[in-house]
Structure formats: C-alpha cells, structure tokens
Amino acid sequence: MTLLDEPQTPASNITEYSVTELSGVLKRTIEDRFGLVRVRGEISGFRGRHSSGHCYFSLKDERARLEAVIWKATYAKLAFKPEEGLEVVATGRLTTYPGSSKYQIVIEEIAPAGAGALMALLNERRMKLEAEGLFAAERKKKLPFLPRVIGVVTSPTGAVIRDIRHRIADRFPVHLVVWPVRVQGETSGEEVARAIAGFDAIEAGGPIPRPDVIIVARGGGSLEDLWGFNDEAVVRAVAACSIPLISAIGHETDWTLIDHVADMRAPTPTGAAEIAVPVKAEISAALAGLHARQDGAAFRLMEHERRAVAGLARALPSPDMLLALPRRRLDEAASGLSRSLRLGLSDKRRLFGEAGARLSVTSLEHSVQQKRAELRHADACILHGLQSSVGLRRQRFDRVASLLRPQAIAAKGDEKRARFDVFAQRFEAALAHSMEARRGALTTAGRMVESLSPMRVLSRGYAIIRDTDNNPVTRAADLLPGMSFEVEFAAGERRRAVAEEDGAPPRPRPAPRRRAAKAAEDQGSLF
Amino acid sequence: MSETTEQSLPADDSDIRRMTFEEALAALERIVADLEHGEVPLDRSIRIYERGEKLKNHCERLLSAAEDRIEKIKLSRTGKPEGTEPLDLG
C-alpha cells in the first residue's frame, strides 16, 4: 500500500480481495468449520462411477441440494455403495470448488440411513424385477434328482463351504466345484454375478466339469452384509443361468433378491446341500426294495402260472382212469358171457336130457306098432278100394266094349295098308340106289388110302428113323450124338444104328474121298 | 396291464444307458407295478423282468459313478476360469 494510491481509492475500511483470494478464504473457512460432517439426505442424480473412477451425485432433501463426490480410492473401500434414491448418512468433508463457485461434500463413508431406508429400496427393486417376470414360478427349473457335479458359489474359506461339503458327503458324496467369491463388501454382488455366468458358460465335457446344479451360499449377517445378493446384476445372472440354482443366503429369516429368482431357496447352506442331493443309502434301499419286489412279483407270477399248469395237469385224467370205465364194461360183459354161456349150456343140456329121457325103445316100439296098425288099416282100405274100383271100371269097359264095331275098323285098315305098300316099294328102290353110290365111293377111298400108306413110300426107297421108344424121329436135333436109333425099311425090316456127330449133315457113305479132301485142305494150309 | 409300459418298451434295452437315474428308477417302478399287478402275459413278464434287471443295474452304476471330490476354480487376473485345483478345507 502506498500514499500515491490512497487518493484513488475511496475511503473504506472494507478489505478488498481478489476473487481468488476470496475463494481461497472461503475454502479455508468452510474446510476448517466443516472439517468432518455427517449429513443425511437422499442420493440423487447418481449415474454410477465416472470414467475416471470418481463418483459425482447430490444429496438432497425437501428443500436443499448438496453436491457430493466420492473419490475413486474411497469408493473402492466403501462397504456400502451409493444407489440412486437411497437415503443415506454420508460422512465427509465440505469443500469448495473455486472454479465454479460451488461447494460440495467429499464423502469418505456412506451408509444407508437406517434399515427402513434399505428395505424401502429393496422393496422397490423387488417390485421392479418382479414386474419383469424374473421371479415367475414358471421360470423355475427342476432340480436334477441325482447331480454328478455341484457348483458352489461362495467363499472358499469359512464355515459355509465346510458345512455344505460335510452334509453332501454324509448324504451322497459328489464332485463339488467351488467358484471362489467374496460374499461381503462392495464387489461381492459383481463377483457372484460373474461366478454364476461363469459356471453357465462352462461347456460340458471340457476340462472344468459343468455343474448339474449351482448352490449360491453365504452365512448369516446383517442386511448390509447380505446386500450384495440383492444386486440387480446377481438377479439377472441367475435369471439368465440355464443351470438350476439353489440360493442359501444367511439364515431362514433373511430374504434377499437372489432367493426370489433362484429355482429353489434353501433356508441355510446345509439345507441347500440337503436339497441338492438325496440320501444315497435311502436310494440304494429303495432300489433294493424295488428289485426285491420285482423278484417277488416275477416269482409269484411264475408260481401262479406253474400252479395253473399243475392244476390243469391234475385235471387231466390218467390213462388208467380214462380206460377204467370201458374196461369195467368189458369185464362185466366177459363175466356175463361165461355165465350166460354156462347157463345156456346147462339149459340145452337139460333140454337134451329131457328129450333123451323121452327117447326110449318102448316109445319107439309103440310108435312102430301104431304105424304098423295104420299100415294094415291102409292096406285093407287099398284092397277094398281096388276091388270096388276094378268092378266099377269093368262095368264101364263092358259098356264101352258093347259099343265097339269091328267092321268099320277093318275098312280103315285096308285103305292104310294099300298106301303103305306103295311107300314100301319106293323106299326099297331108293335104298338100293344109295347103297350102290356109297360102295363106289368106298372103293375109291380105299385106293387112295393104299397109295398114301408109308409102307408104299418105304418101298420106293425111303426109310423111317425111330428112336429107342419106337417114335419116328423127324428132326436131326432130336437125335443127339451117342443116341441109338433104328432105321425102318419097306416090309417092316429094321436095322439098329448109333448117332455120331453133332450138327453135322448126314455123312455120305464114301468116307475116303472126304478124308482126301481134308488132307488136301491140310496141305493147302501149309502154303 | 399298464399302457405306459406297453408303449415305452423298446425293441432292445440300449435306451437304458442314456437314461437319467430318475428315468431309470421310474421305469423300474412301472415294471415292478406291472409285475405285481399280475396281468402281464408270461412271455412279456419275462421280457420286462429282464429289462427291470438292466434298469436296476443302470441305477446302481449311476449311484456308484458319483465322485467324492472337492475342487476350486482357478481364476485368471481378468476373472476368467483357468482350471481347477483341489480345495483343502482343513
């Protein structure tokens, strides 16, 4: 400050600042005065984190608005993340932003303004997601009865995974794959959502086994502790997951949004293990029971059929029974036959005896005498009848004889005799003529016979060959060599001879000439 | 006689191998019920009895196939699964 300047400035005790100076003074004043404040208000204009990682929004109530900022480093450490519309109690320092004449609170901690506020927010979100249909019963998938692999989304350390592991081992030991996540803190919701989507992305048959069912589990805690499971990202990940999912968050009284969207909600992690797998021993027992029932039923069925066959077989009469009746009839008939035969025989014998008794010599004699008397009587009758008959016929003859007249008969006899004489003469002439003719024929035949007589032939130089039985031999074949025969000449002269060669023609007598011819043939053969 | 078994009885039993435990168990239960009902013809009852035996064996195989094992997914820096490692619960 100089004297020269004084006349130019109006007389005033007010200190004059530059804008920067004033802004700086203000900044110091506010930061000193409100070094650390707790302010309650509703988060407004929250649009998530800026690309720089910082967060900018406002806290408001009915009449005022306070700009707020959460630096990137602080945000990462927040246990509870700011959400639009949530009433919070923020702890931070007030500061100004001299570049645009603004003041704001730099939040260092943030917490929901009491349970009621959180519940209100949760309720609002639940209704919104429900309106989308994400919690609908028809979306729920059926859990596999017997999973081979179970994916567990939880902390790899702590009691929860141990409880699940033990309970599953007790019931039905299966392959567990744990996807490690933080189940508390501001990143937990995001990690859980990623884990669910990650399990769903595993291909079947790959190096990491794809689970048949997923359990998302966490132990008990405060509403804020479980807040990650109310994360909308978690809810959407569960809704999108194609693997059936069981949620088991906190205690039975704790409800989070994942419980609404899960295919099954378990009251506790242990309960989730019980839902996920059946008790192997019970299944084995049920299977054994079924098997026993099948065996029993099949056995009874066979037994029933067997009994039916046996019953039918029993009903089938034996050959003996089948033949019994006819045999009995036969036996009766046979026995009746001999009895009736005996009966008939004795009957006949009795009849014969009776007849024999009646047949006696006296009766025969009696009969003969009777017949003889009858004969005598008949004889007498015949004689008497004959005599009376002859007398009768003689009377009739005498009567007829007196009627006979010899003259008429004599006249008839003369006429017949004249006719007879004529015929007798004609007969004798014819007979003589016929005899003459026959005699001539006989003479001719006699001559013929003589000319045909073999004796006549023999006299002409022929001879008859006869065998030893004197039968003429007409064929050379009948005269075997060595057989003797006879030659019959005329006038019955005979000479005996013996046949010589077989089949040779009758040998001419002059044998020497033949021998010479034979010698000539022999000689001829020499050349 | 149960129509369901009548219809679902295939020519051979090769379908059993693809059945889940539940399906096989349900099929076995139907067969047992049919047999117990006693109205199945004899030759068919023998056939379904054999099928029941196969179903039972399949169920037992599935029961014994489960592995008693616990593993943890190994995550890369970017949060992608890289494989598994045994998890020791102590």
TrEMBL record, chain A:
Pfam families: Exonuc_VII_L (PF02601), tRNA_anti_2 (PF13742). It comes from Consotaella salsifontis. It catalyses: Exonucleolytic cleavage in either 5'- to 3'- or 3'- to 5'-direction to yield nucleoside 5'-phosphates. One of its GO terms (biological process) is DNA catabolic process. One of its GO terms (cellular component) is cytoplasm. Residues 17-110 form the OB-fold nucleic acid binding domain. Residues 494-527 are annotated as: Disordered. Heterooligomer composed of large and small subunits. Transmembrane segments: none annotated. Residues 134-405 form the Exonuclease VII large subunit C-terminal domain. Bidirectionally degrades single-stranded DNA into large acid-insoluble oligonucleotides, which are then degraded further into small acid-soluble oligonucleotides. It is found in: Cytoplasm. It is an enzyme of class 3 (hydrolase). The keyword DNA repair does not apply. Its EC number is 3.1.11.6. GO terms for molecular function: exodeoxyribonuclease VII activity; nucleic acid binding. This is Exodeoxyribonuclease 7 large subunit. Keywords: Cytoplasm, Exonuclease, Hydrolase, Nuclease. Belongs to the XseA family. InterPro entries: Exonuc_VII_L, Exonuc_VII_lsu_C, OB-fold_nuc-bd_dom.
UniProtKB/TrEMBL annotation, chain B:
This is Exodeoxyribonuclease 7 small subunit. InterPro entries: Exonuc_VII_S, Exonuc_VII_ssu_sf. Keywords: Cytoplasm, Exonuclease, Hydrolase, Nuclease. The keyword Hydrolase applies. The lineage of its organism: Bacteria, Pseudomonadati, Pseudomonadota, Alphaproteobacteria, Hyphomicrobiales. It catalyses: Exonucleolytic cleavage in either 5'- to 3'- or 3'- to 5'-direction to yield nucleoside 5'-phosphates. Heterooligomer composed of large and small subunits. The gene is xseB. One of its GO terms (biological process) is DNA catabolic process. Belongs to the XseB family. Pfam families: Exonuc_VII_S (PF02609). One of its GO terms (molecular function) is exodeoxyribonuclease VII activity. SUPFAM superfamilies: XseB-like. Its EC number is 3.1.11.6. The keyword Ribonucleoprotein does not apply.
